[in-house]
């Protein structure tokens, strides 16, 4: 028999999705602090806890967004910025490229953006830099001295953030798009050069009427990626 706890945990995990349109409804600082505090129970090698976070709202978030959008909308300026680390593979292969293309087609389909419509695609991507209008934007960094194991720890922490938010009726969108402009973010927030920007995240209440929030990405069946050996 499925227990109440199991049902609740499973529902929180399976209902999480990347929300790309938020309501202006504010989120209390105490709620954000509670989410991050719970998320920090994530495991880490020898309890080193490598995560560091900046929670942006109000004037600070607006100022950061304004600078990011200005850089993104200026091709010459954007060309002077680059990612601090390699997130995606340098050479795409199947099945990963197929999944990437499919989710892009699904998102643009919901938004009515036709293939080749560079202007609309640019405008949609630019919404990353407004944190999809969420009231809270989170920035996550790690000390450069930390190695690959700490990045594994960080992934578990980020998942905890998203699940703790979901359990409180909030939605999130993890955003690697922000890392290209890490120098701007670093300058605006006073992030030291000794830290690498891992990603950002939007946090708030989902807009239920936004078509893009109807997107639910598929997951491969177990037989495609699991091998049981008795």
Quick gist of this model?
This protein is of the alpha+beta class and 230 residues long. It has eight helices and four strands. Helix 2 (29-39) crosses helix 7.
Topology:
Elements: H1 4-15, H2 29-39, E1 52-56, H3 58-72, H4 75-78, H5 96-111, H6 118-126, E2 136-143, H7 148-167, E3 171-175, H8 182-189, E4 195-204
Antiparallel strand pairs: 1-2, 2-4, 3-4
Helix pairs in contact: 2-7
Descriptive notes:
The chain is built from 8 helices and 4 strands. It has helices spanning about 5-15, 30-40, 60-70, 75-80, 95-110, 120-125, 150-165, 180-190, and strands at about 50-55, 135-145, 170-175, 195-205. The chain is globular, with a radius of gyration of 18 Å. The mean pLDDT is about 95.
Structural class: alpha+beta
Let me know the largest β-sheet. 4 strands, antiparallel
Please give the count of helices: 8
* Beta strand count: 4
Low-confidence stretches: none
Beta-strand percentage? Answer: 5-15%
Q: What average pLDDT do the residues reach? A: 97
* Through-space gap between termini: 25 Å
**Could you say which overall geometry the principal axes of the C-alpha atoms support?**
globular
Oligomeric state, counting identical vs distinct chains: single chain
The proportion of residues forming helix, as a percent range, comes to 40-55%
Strand order of the largest sheet: 1-2-4-3
Order of helices and strands: HHEHHHHEHEHE
Cα-based radius of gyration, to the nearest Å: 18 Å
């Amino acid at each position: 028999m499925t227990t109440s706890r199991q049902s609740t945990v499973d529902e929180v995990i399976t209902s999480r999705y990347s929300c790309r349109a938020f309501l202006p409804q504010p989120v209390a600082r105490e709620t954000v602090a509670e989410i991050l505090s719970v998320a920090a129970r994530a495991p880490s090698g020898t309890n080193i806890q490598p995560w560091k976070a900046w929670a942006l709202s109000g004037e600070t978030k607006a100022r950061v967004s304004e600078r990011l959008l200005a850089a993104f909308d200026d091709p010459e300026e954007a060309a002077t910025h680059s990612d601090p680390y390699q997130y995606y593979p340098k050479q795409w292969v199947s099945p990963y490229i197929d999944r990437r293309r499919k989710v892009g087609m699904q998102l643009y389909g919901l938004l009515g953006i036709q293939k080749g419509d560079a202007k609309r695609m640019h405008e949609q991507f630019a919404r990353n830099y407004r944190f999809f209008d969420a009231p809270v934007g989170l920035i996550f960094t790690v000390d450069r001295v930390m190695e690959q194991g700490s990045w594994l720890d960080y992934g578990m922490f980020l998942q905890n953030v998203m699940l703790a938010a979901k359990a409180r009726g909030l939605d999130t969108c993890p955003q690697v798009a922000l890392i290209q402009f890490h120098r701007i973010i670093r300058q605006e927030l006073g992030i030291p050069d000794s830290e690498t920007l891992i990603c950002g995240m939007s946090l708030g209440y989902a807009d239920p009427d936004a078509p893009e929030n109807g997107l639910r990405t598929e997951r491969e069946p177990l037989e495609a990626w699991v091998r049981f050996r008795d």
